[in-house]
Design goal:
Elements (H helix, E strand, L loop, with lengths): L10 E2 L2 E2 H29 L11 H17 L1 H12 L1 H19 L4 H28 L9 H29 L2 H22 L10 H7 L9 H25 L5 H9 L3 E2 L1 H33 L4 H26 L4 E2 L4 H24 L4 H22 L15 H28 L5 H23 L2 H7 L2 H21 L1 H8 L4
Antiparallel strand pairs: 1-2, 3-4
C-alpha cells in the first residue's frame, strides 16, 4: 500500500504534494534538455566567425537525429535497471547528476568534450526519464484512481514549463550572448533539480524503492491480473508505442527543419508598433507562467517545508533565478529599437500553447468527450498533420532551391498550435495508459518501451530532416512539409480502425 498521502492531508489542486515534487524535478530536467536542444542545430550550422562550428544543415540535423534518438533509446535499459536493481528513486537521482555532468562538459565547446557531454546526457536521461514517469503512476491507487489522468496532465504541464523556460532563456542567451552560457545555464538548473529531488524524496514513502529496500521494509507487492490479461495489455502498450513513431518523427522536426525554416525562411524582424506589440505579448507569455510556477511553489512550501526544508529552499533559489533572468531578458529587449525574434523563440510556442490548452483538454475528457485511447491517439496524429499542412501552404510561395525567404510567421504559429493539440491527445494520454495497463513489476521497463519507439521516431526525424535542402531544391519547401502532413494523418486513420481490437486487448481499461 502506498503511504505517501493520508486522507485529509495537504493537497495542491486536489493532488498529493508529492506530485509537485516530481513536477518541479521533471521541469528542471526538461529545462536542461530543451534548452540545450534548442541551441544544438543552430550552434552547429552557425559559421565559425560567429562562434559556431560551420556544419552543413544535413550534417547538423543528422547528428540531431542520432542524439535525440539515443536520448529516448536508453530509457528501456534505464527502466530495466531500476526495476531489477536500483529502484526508481535512486535511478532518478543518479540520472539527474549524470545529465548535469554532461551539460558541464558542453561548456568547453571542444569536439571531445562536446561528444562526451552528449553521451552523458543520453546515459543520464535513460535512468531519469522512464523512472520519474513510473513514480507518477504509483502515486495513484484504488483510493484515488480517478485522479490519475489529471495527475499525468499536471505532470506534463511541468514537462512543458521546463521546455518553455529552457528554450526561451537558454535559446535567448545562446543566440544573443554566448553559446557556452546557454549550454551552461541548462546544466546549472539540472544539478539543482537533482539535489532538490534527493533531499525531498522521503515524501514518496515506499514508492520507488529498490527490491532490496522493499524487502527490508516488508512492502507487500500488489496483486496482478491473470497472465493472459497481462500479456494482452502489454500488446496494447506496444501498439500504442508503435504508433507514436508516426507522431514524433514529424513533431520532432521542431528542433531541426522547423528551426531552420524559422531562421532562414521566416520574417522575424519587427519594428515600430508591431515590434512593441511583440514585446508586450512576449512579456505576458513569459511573466504569467513564471507567476503560476511561483504560486505552485508557495503551495508546496506551505505543505512540505517543515519536513523537507532544504529541498524547498533549492526550489526557491531556482524560481528566483528564473525571475531574475526573465526580468533581465525582457528589460534588454525593451531597450532595443527593433525586435529581431530569435529563431528558437518559435519552439516556445508549443509549451505555451500546452500550458494554456491542457486544462481545457482535461475538462473536455472529463465532461464532454472522452473517447477510447486509439481514437484519442488517432485524433492527435490528424491534428499534427494539419499543422504541417498549414506550414506547407505557407511555404508554397518559396521558389525551389531558395536559401532564404521572408514568409509570414503566422504559418509557424499555426503549425505549433495544431501540433500542441495533437500532443495533448497523445503524450499525457499515453503515459497514463501505460501506468494503467502495465504490471507494477514491469512499470519502468514498459515506460522504456514507450520511449524506445520515441527514440526510433527521433532518429527518423533527424534523417528525414536532413533532406530539407535536397527535397526543397528538387521539388519545393512546400513538398518537404507535405510529407509530414500525409503520413501522420494516414497513421491516425489506421489506428482509429483498430479501436475495437485494442479494446479487447485492454480488458476493461478505458
Amino acid at each position: 500500500m502506498n503511504t505517501i498521502q493520508n486522507p485529509g492531508a495537504h493537497t495542491i489542486l486536489g493532488h498529493p504534494d508529492s506530485l509537485f515534487v516530481l513536477f518541479f524535478t521533471e521541469m528542471w530536467e526538461r529545462f536542461s534538455y530543451y534548452g540545450m536542444r534548442a541551441l544544438l542545430v543552430l550552434f552547429l550550422v552557425t559559421e565559425t566567425a560567429k562562434g559556431g562550428w560551420g556544419w552543413t544543415r544535413a550534417d547538423a540535423t543528422a547528428l540531431y537525429g542520432w542524439y535525440t534518438g539515443l536520448v529516448y533509446l536508453t530509457p528501456i535499459l534505464g527502466g530495466y535497471i531500476a526495476d531489477k536493481f536500483l529502484g526508481s528513486r535512486r535511478a532518478v537521482v543518479l540520472g539527474g547528476f549524470i545529465i548535469a555532468a554532461g551539460h558541464a562538459s558542453l561548456l568547453f565547446e571542444t569536439p571531445t568534450m562536446f561528444y562526451l557531454g552528449l553521451s552523458l546526457v543520453v546515459a543520464g536521461t535513460g535512468l531519469f526519464k522512464p523512472n520519474i514517469s513510473a513514480i507518477v503512476g504509483q502515486l495513484y491507487n484504488k483510493d484515488n484512481e480517478s485522479g490519475r489522468d489529471g495527475g499525468y496532465t499536471l505532470f506534463y504541464m511541468g514537462v512543458n514549463a521546463g521546455a518553455f523556460f529552457g528554450i526561451s532563456l537558454c535559446g535567448y542567451i545562446g543566440e544573443k550572448i554566448s553559446w557556452s552560457y546557454g549550454f551552461g545555464l541548462a546544466g546549472a538548473f539540472m544539478i539543482l533539480g537533482a539535489i532538490q529531488f534527493y533531499l525531498g524524496q522521503g515524501i514518496f514513502g515506499d514508492i520507488g524503492l529498490s527490491k532490496a529496500q522493499k524487502a527490508e521494509k516488508e512492502v507487500v507487492p500488489q496483486e496482478e491480473p491473470p497472465t493472459h490479461v497481462v500479456v494482452d495489455r502489454i500488446k496494447a502498450i506496444c501498439v500504442f508505442s508503435f504508433f507514436t513513431i508516426f507522431f514524433w518523427f514529424a513533431f520532432e522536426q521542431a528542433g531541426g527543419s522547423m528551426t531552420i525554416f524559422a531562421a532562414d525562411y521566416t520574417d522575424r524582424e519587427l519594428v515600430g508598433t508591431s515590434g512593441m506589440i511583440f514585446k508586450i505579448v512576449n512579456s505576458l507569455m513569459t511573466v504569467i507562467p513564471t507567476a503560476i510556477l511561483s504560486w505552485l511553489l508557495i503551495k508546496l512550501f506551505a505543505g512540505t517545508a517543515k519536513r523537507y526544508l532544504w529541498s524547498n529552499i533549492l526550489l526557491v533559489i531556482c524560481i528566483s533565478a528564473i525571475w531574475a533572468l526573465v526580468i533581465w531578458m525582457l528589460g534588454r529587449e525593451f531597450s532595443m529599437d527593433k525586435s529581431n525574434i530569435p529563431a528558437t523563440w518559435f519552439g516556445v510556442l508549443n509549451s505555451f500553447f500546452l500550458v494554456i490548452l491542457a486544462p481545457m483538454f482535461t475538462k473536455m475528457w472529463e465532461k464532454h468527450w472522452n473517447p477510447s485511447g486509439p481514437v484519442k491517439f488517432g485524433t492527435g496524429l490528424i491534428l499534427l498533420g494539419l499543422g504541417f499542412a498549414a506550414l506547407s501552404y505557407g511555404a508554397s510561395s518559396i521558389p525551389a532551391g531558395a536559401k532564404t525567404a521572408s514568409v509570414s510567421m503566422i504559418f509557424l504559429i499555426a503549425a505549433y498550435f495544431f501540433h500542441t493539440m495533437g500532443e495533448l491527445c497523445i503524450s499525457p494520454v499515453g503515459l497514463s495508459y501505460i501506468s494503467k495497463l502495465a504490471p507494477q513489476r514491469l512499470l519502468g521497463l514498459m515506460f522504456g518501451i514507450w520511449f524506445l519507439n520515441t527514440a526510433i521516431a527521433n532518429k527518423i526525424a533527424g534523417s528525414t530532416g536532413s533532406y530539407i535542402d535536397e527535397i526543397s531544391n528538387t521539388y519545393s519547401m512546400s513538398t518537404f512539409f507535405l510529407i509530414f502532413t500525409i503520413i501522420p494523418i494516414a497513421a491516425g486513420i489506421v489506428l482509429m480502425l483498430l479501436n475495437k481490437w485494442m479494446a479487447k486487448k485492454m480488458h476493461g481499461i478505458h
